[in-house]
Design a protein that fits this description.
This protein is an alpha/beta fold and 551 residues long. The chain contains 15 helices and 27 strands. It is globular.
């Protein structure tokens, strides 16, 4: 390969077509795949394959996306979503997703990782969908079939680190990394223009070649070297330009422990440096401590006053808006968020992290009582904030979702021992019961059991979720454009909240979040009942009532 300006090397080979396999040889001694490989049929250590993206015959050619206020998302892991564990296998369950009333699916990362199974956050070849799930045309077919059913498709992408096995960039492009560290290794250095281009073009690649409707950027607080202007700003602007050029509705969402409200703007169309929304951990943590009474780890920031935290989240977005966090050593966390639209906050009771980062990977269906969990769902699915469910949550699946991977040798042992050390103090009671993340049995335990859906209790839960999502679609979704935060108060165990909808009407919540009956607050809002009821001016234990008022 011939040296070119600014550190690039180039070679043109005539007569190379689709399906050709190739590698790069470094200094005559090390053969590696293309760092921008589009497919790795023999995993991350094998050759790269030339892919002709024009060969796929798209069917949903009129699809231009859906507005962000329509979002109601099911997060899924392709390998564990079905027993088949492939892109094609996921297609078989899209009718279920649409019939449930959800409007989008979000895939956990699919960028190529070492081994045959992984959560996806150890990806090393960011342009190549992992061959364990199928070929590129299979992923395109999944997106295409989802669009045919009116479903948006989002992809989780990781720009804060590379996985520990199969990444050779440091060998021949050491300036790709800085001396800063992330929890997972050396930081990617986005102050370097070529590195920044690599990430931005990757985001645009998924949105163009695979026609995803949006991306969820993992743990952006852990991007140590963002550069100036920030990588996040440049990436958003690039996606905004793509939206303008194509007339598509494209959505960018972040996970950000820093609660940086100034990074968010859900109504900006198209994106111009900011992001539609953030996964709202404050909402989850408030509910989790209320439902389970757990106090360890980050839950200690919420455990003493979960209802106060939940009330603030319902009234202004984040719970931590600049206050000190005990879990973070007293460091201030967050920015004021009440001036944002509620659409800037993706609310959830469970996701892959909050289930899988537990020693046993238990779901709320086995940790919480049915009545409180039903109340939590009634609030989550009808509040104006875009809701997210984790696969199987819609029917109350009891299948765990423990952490799993497929490394070998010393790395496998390091992961295994590190997992045990992580839980040694807080969860000492589990001891040897903590699943081995390298075991095939651990992975198989995470695969959804679709026969569970047909059991009486599961069928009842699914009908409940479908009822709520039907109300959301009929009564709330058409009014969400222009929605604003109103007020939220707590009176003992009773939480009330109001939001001003885009058509001028008022959406109101009244909930008794305790196991004892409580009186209706004197200032409770009046309006047409959407869901739930009040009996004799008393709120029954764990009861939820939604109303919508006139303009």
């Amino acid at each position: 390969m011939q040296a070119r300006p600014e550190g690039w090397y180039e070679l043109t080979v005539e007569g190379v077509g689709a399906s050709t396999l190739y590698k790069f040889r470094i200094d005559g001694e090390l053969e590696v795949p293309d760092p921008a490989s589009h497919f790795q049929p023999q995993d991350v250590f094998g050759p790269s394959e030339v892919i002709d993206h024009r060969a796929y015959d798209w069917q949903a050619t009129d699809w231009r996306g859906r507005p962000w206020e329509h979002a109601a998302t099911l997060e899924l892991h392709v390998g564990a979503f079905t027993p088949i564990g492939t892109f094609r296998g996921a297609i078989e369950r899209l009718d279920h997703v649409a019939q449930t009333g959800l409007t989008a699916i979000e895939l956990m990362p699919v960028a190529d990782f070492a081994g045959g199974r992984n959560w996806g956050y150890d990806g090393v070849l960011l342009y190549a969908p992992d061959s364990a799930y199928g070929r590129p045309q299979d992923l395109k077919a999944l997106v295409d079939e989802a669009h045919a059913r009116g479903l948006m498709v989002f992809l989780d992408v990781v720009y804060n680190h590379f996985g520990p096995e199969g990444n050779y960039l440091a060998r021949y492009a050491p300036s790709f990394f800085s001396n800063a560290h992330t929890p997972w290794g050396l930081a990617i250095d986005y102050r370097v223009s070529q590195v920044r281009t690599f990430a931005i073009e990757n985001a645009v690649y998924w949105l163009t070649q695979y026609r995803f409707d949006g991306l969820r950027l993992d743990a952006v607080h852990a991007i140590a070297e963002r550069g100036e202007p920030s990588l996040l700003s440049d990436l958003s602007c690039a996606v905004g330009r793509l939206a303008l050029q194509t007339g598509r509705k494209l959505h960018l969402v972040v996970e950000n422990d820093d609660n940086t409200a100034s990074l968010l703007d859900p109504v900006e169309e198209p994106p111009q440096g900011r992001y539609r929304a953030q996964w709202n951990d404050d909402y989850h943590h408030s509910w989790h401590t209320l439902l389970t009474r757990e106090r360890g780890g980050y839950y200690r920031d919420y455990a003493d006053r979960p209802l106060d935290h939940l009330t603030r989240v319902l009234g202004s977005g984040f719970s931590y808006q600049g206050e000190a966090s005990a879990h973070r050593g007293g460091r201030a966390r967050g920015e004021p968020s009440g001036a944002l639209s509620p659409l800037a906050f993706v609310n959830f009771l469970q996701n892959h992290d909050q289930i899988g980062n537990r020693p046993l990977g238990e779901r709320l269906s086995v940790l919480a009582q049915p009545a409180p969990l039903k109340a939590a769902l009634a609030i989550t699915l009808l509040a104006p904030m875009p809701p997210l469910l984790f696969m199987g949550e819609e029917w109350g699946s009891s299948r765990p979702f423990p952490f799993f991977c497929d490394f070998a040798g010393e790395l496998a042992n390091a992961v295994r021992q590190g997992r045990r050390r992580e839980f040694a103090l807080a969860y000492a009671q589990f001891g040897d019961a903590i699943p081995d993340p390298l075991s095939l049995t651990t992975f198989r335990s995470a695969v959804l059991d679709w026969t569970e859906r047909d059991q009486p209790q599961s069928h009842k839960r699914l009908s409940f979720v479908r009822e709520l999502l039907a109300i959301r679609k009929r009564e709330i979704m058409p009014r969400l454009a222009g929605v604003r935060f109103g007020s939220a108060q707590r009176d003992g165990s009773v939480v009330t909240a109001e939001w001003r909808l885009g058509d001028g009407s008022t959406l109101a919540l009244m909930a008794n979040l305790s196991g004892k009956a409580a009186p209706v607050p004197r200032l409770a809002a009046e309006g047409r009942a959407l869901w739930g009821e009040v009996v004799s001016r008393r709120l029954q234990p764990w009861s939820v009532a939604w109303t919508i008022g006139a303009r």
